[in-house]
Design a protein that fits this description.
The complex is a heterotrimer of chains A (119), B (469) and C (262).
Chain A: H1 5-28, H2 35-38, H3 52-55, H4 60-83, H5 85-88, H6 90-113
Helix pairs in contact in A: 4-6
Chain B: H1 3-7, H2 27-59, H3 75-84, H4 96-112, E1 122-125, E2 128-131, H5 140-161, H6 165-196, H7 201-207, H8 218-231, H9 243-246, H10 256-281, H11 289-292, H12 304-326, H13 332-361, E3 369-372, E4 375-378, H14 379-410, E5 417-418, E6 434-435, H15 458-468
Parallel strand pairs in B: 5-6
Antiparallel strand pairs in B: 1-2, 3-4
Helix pairs in contact in B: 2-10, 2-12, 4-5, 4-10, 5-6, 6-8, 6-13, 8-10, 8-13, 10-12, 13-14
Chain C: H1 4-26, H2 30-50, H3 54-79, H4 94-115, H5 120-136, H6 139-147, H7 152-173, H8 184-194, H9 231-235, H10 243-261
Helix pairs in contact in C: 1-2, 2-3
The chains are: A mainly alpha (119), B mainly alpha (469), C mainly alpha (262).
């Protein structure tokens, strides 16, 4: 048996449980219509018809996601390096340090330009 | 339990493939184990919510839930049942399909990662010798990270599909927070892989048989513990649901069981990250050092592992609760600054340092040895460790100096005498300060007097003049 | 050649992947399209794992589903849901140029795939080699040996790609701060210096019937205080009137008076 199949078991169990619970509450729970209930939540004042900014996201998050990808890819290269380090030797260590330093240039640039500030 | 023999060249080169043997595990035994782990998680969640409320209660000098069942143990079950019997509201603005999908993703993904966590040693189950672990794969730890990154979809989709302001902002914050801390978490794990030479959980656990990785990778452990709190959106990092700003964050609009699924997901995620910490840093299901010495490790392995694993897991759960009971929530910009400007660069530096230390141990940087106190040490290891230590000390020193200078700059001794009406507004005296005799200013004319105590700044004079003008 | 389990997995997942990919093309809402693509990425990851490329499969899920699709979602949410329907050409001739490029890409893909050797013995021997490597050296170690051996130059160049990505993101998304950021403490100092509303703005009205930020507080003479409601609410025209509340107040005052005289 493939060793990944039990992971699918867990996935299936989790999904079945979640779907069943949500479904049960839909069946068992009361349904009393009230217009106010269906409005967006607001602390007393009239709720706005749409979410803030028409449901749009500040552009700031784009930068965060992009930086996330960059470091994600860096760590992806670090994993095989770390696992195989005992077989790779000094050459790989030097190469890896070079790689980390180069990516660090990007990081330093973003820091200097204020891309990591959050206010 | 010498450091050098455990991690030095003498040790056989580790294999990256799992050491746990699943060859005698038919699919139905795996399914039974999966169901077992699932039930274990559900019961643990029920318990931990009760535990959290009781412990927080103790910390705040109140009893906590104590009515339903013995010691209030059934409180969570009652809450769950009650939430099932509540109305499930879908707001008119919501994107119906995604609104339902989001809690399902959040809850489902939380359970998946536990499949690769080793809960105990090899046991006999229905006539089959099988490890107490649902499964293990060569990239098990990465799988946890991958599943976590899919789980984030639950949060962002919930926030977006609610069609309401608070959930949108909360969902975004939460997502940005989780992905930011996932980097530092991922980087902190690299040190473990460097030592163990494997990403399979069973191989990592067996590589820790002589020394738990919490010692050689102590810094990774610290970073991991911080990031695991950030990953699970728990206090002091629960900014996504800062009640004062965002009501409930991404799940503001959710009710009934769909809300409960997020709640369940959060707690199961807490167990998952804690279980991973146990596996990677605390030797997983291995017996603690002193107990493992008793009678040739008679309390280790097999079903005993489940006990040790659960105990270690609950230590982390207690830490989660303890943090919640004692720390205030941080501000969002502080949180992001800490993650991006401190944790990530310092973890990268640590990874490079560990790579050099490990390279020295493996003899990549020269083979010369020296004998110290009866032990053979490689010169390269000593040199690298000293360099790292010196750099760390220097960094700490500079940082401390800067902080001391800053504190000194701020910590001017307050003047002994204070004029409470100096700036035009009444100011109470600090402890030990004497009140100045009320000058002529208090009288009807209230002329600005420029030559009062030394603290009279240009601004306060300005304010006074404006007050009169 | 293919085991039954693998065949079953393929025939179950492949149609889902195709449907999700079609969803990417034809979904009305941009976020649905992005979700379809995320599903395709996940299934691709599972396919890789089924093909015994464990590391590649999990990285596919980790990087593409986790990071890249998250970026897509952010971008879609950034531009708003409706703008995907826009069919106005911003650059002239863009459509024809993209059409030509698509034809070119399709041609390249066609010949590349056509030139690939896919006879059974070659594929089988490649598969056998992979399985042997997975067993003896390990999947990840084998990959690492390739990265730090044959492909080390490409690996180093990747870092340049990452720098470019950071640069591009900064150019596109970063708003340079022209003046230093004013901290909370500085605002407080400024308030005292200006000597205006030193104790903060007045709080909004709190009444027995209505308690919200959109209700202005009443000044001693009964007029509503504009300072007590947020500018945003004024701009949105969402400020509640206090007339009704004043009436209630008057009514209550009268009742109290009547009660006193009885």
């Amino acid at each position: 048996m493939n060793s990944y199949v039990p992971i699918l078991f867990m996935l299936g169990l989790g999904f079945a449980f979640a779907a069943l619970s949500v479904f049960t509450s839909l069946v068992v729970g009361p349904k009393r219509y009230n217009r106010a209930k269906l409005e967006a939540y607001e602390c007393g004042i009239q709720p706005t018809p749409h979410a803030a900014g028409g449901g749009r996201v500040p552009i700031k998050y784009y930068l965060t996601a992009m930086l996330f990808i960059i470091f994600d890819i860096e760590s992806i290269f670090l994993y095989p390096f770390a696992v195989a380090f005992n077989k790779l030797g000094l050459f790989a260590l030097v190469e890896m340090v070079l790689f980390i330093l180069t990516v660090f240039i990007a990081y330093a640039y973003v820091w200097r330009r204020g891309g990591l500030e959050w206010d | 339990m010498s450091f050098v023999t455990a991690y030095g060249v003498a040790a056989a080169l580790p294999m990256e493939n799992p050491t746990a043997d699943f060859s005698d595990t038919p699919w139905w035994v795996a399914l039974i184990k999966a169901v077992g782990v699932f039930v274990y998680l559900l019961i643990s969640t029920l318990l931990v919510i009760w535990f959290e409320r009781r412990v927080i209660g103790r910390m705040q000098q109140r009893p906590g839930p104590n009515r339903n069942g013995p010691f209030g143990l059934l409180q969570t079950l009652a809450d769950g049942m009650k939430s099932m019997l509540k109305e499930d509201i879908t707001p008119a603005n919501a994107e119906k399909f995604i609104y339902t999908l989001a809690p399902l993703i959040a809850a489902t993904m939380a359970f998946v990662s536990f499949a690769i966590i080793p809960l105990g040693g090899t046991v006999s189950m229905f006539g089959h010798e099988t490890p107490l672990q649902v499964t293990d794969v060569p990239i098990a730890v990465l799988l946890v990270l991958a599943v976590a990154s899919v789980g984030v979809y639950g949060i962002i989709l919930a926030g977006w599909s609610s069609g309401s302001t608070y959930p949108l902002l909360g969902g975004l914050r939460s997502t940005a927070q989780v992905i930011s801390y996932e980097i530092a978490m991922g980087l902190s794990l690299v040190a473990i892989f460097l030592y163990s030479g494997s990403m399979s959980t069973s191989a990592i656990v067996s590589a820790q048989s002589s020394l738990w990785y919490i010692l050689p990778a102590f810094f990774s452990f610290a970073v991991y513990v911080i990031t695991m709190v950030g990953e699970t959106n728990r206090l002091p990092f629960d900014l996504a649901e800062g009640e004062g700003e965002l009501t409930g964050g991404f799940h503001t609009e959710y009710s009934s069981m769909r809300f409960a699924m997020f709640f369940l997901g959060e707690y199961v995620n807490m167990f998952t990250v804690s279980a991973l910490a146990t596996t990677l840093f605390l030797g997983g299901p291995q017996a603690p050092p002193l107990i493992s010495a008793i009678n040739d490790n008679m309390f280790g392995g097999g079903w005993w592992g489940l006990l040790w694993f659960t105990l270690k897991l609950w230590v982390f759960m207690f830490i989660f609760v303890w943090l919640r009971g004692s720390l205030p929530r941080v501000r969002y910009d502080q949180f992001m600054r800490f993650g991006w400007k401190f944790l990530i660069p310092i973890t990268l530096a640590w990874v490079v340092a560990v790579a050099f230390i490990r390279g020295a141990q493996l003899g990549f940087l020269g083979d010369s040895k020296l004998t110290f106190a009866g032990r053979e040490l490689s010169v390269a290891t000593v040199v690298i460790v000293s360099i790292v230590a010196v750099i760390a000390l220097a960094a700490a020193w500079i940082w401390d100096d800067k902080r001391a200078a800053k504190a000194a700059a701020e910590d001017e001794a307050p003047p002994e005498e204070i004029d409470p009406f100096e700036g035009g507004y009444p100011v109470p005296p600090l402890p030990g300060q004497r009140l100045a005799e009320p000058g002529p200013r208090i009288s009807a004319t209230r002329e600005p007097v420029l030559s009062t105590a030394s603290t009279t700044s240009a601004t306060s004079t300005f304010a006074k003049e404006e007050d009169h003008g | 050649m293919t085991s039954t389990a693998e065949a079953v997995g393929f025939w179950v997942l492949a149609p889902i992947a195709v449907i999700a990919a079609l969803g990417l093309l034809f979904a009305k809402k941009a976020v649905h399209a992005a979700l379809g693509m995320a599903l395709v990425m996940c299934i691709l990851g599972i396919f890789y794992i089924m093909q015994k490329a464990d590391f590649l499969g999990v990285i596919q899920v980790f990087v593409y589903t986790g990071a890249v699709m998250m970026l897509f979602l952010f971008v879609l949410m950034l531009v708003g849901v409706d703008s995907s329907d826009s069919v106005v050409e911003t650059i002239k001739g863009q459509r024809w140029a993209s059409f030509l490029l698509v034809i070119g890409l399709a041609g390249v893909l066609f010949f590349a795939i056509g030139a690939a050797v896919i006879d059974e013995t070659t594929v089988q021997s490649g598969m056998d080699k992979l399985v042997a490597t997975n067993k003896e050296t390990g999947n990840v170690t084998g990959l690492a040996e390739l990265i730090f051996g044959q492909y080390v130059w490409i690996f180093e160049v990747t870092s340049a790609l990452l720098i470019t990505a950071a640069l591009g993101a900064m150019v596109l998304a970063h708003r340079e701060r022209l003046s230093p950021r004013i901290t909370q403490a500085e605002w407080a100092a400024k308030r005292v210096r200006d000597n205006k509303n030193v104790a903060g703005l007045p709080a909004p009205g709190v009444y027995a019937r209505h308690n919200a930020v959109d209700t202005p507080a009443l000044l001693p003479d009964g007029t509503p205080s504009d300072l007590s409601v947020s500018r945003v609410l004024v701009a949105r025209d969402q400020v509640a009137t206090t007339d009704a509340l004043r009436d209630v107040e008057r009514h209550m005052a009268r009742e109290i008076e009547e009660g006193g005289s009885k």
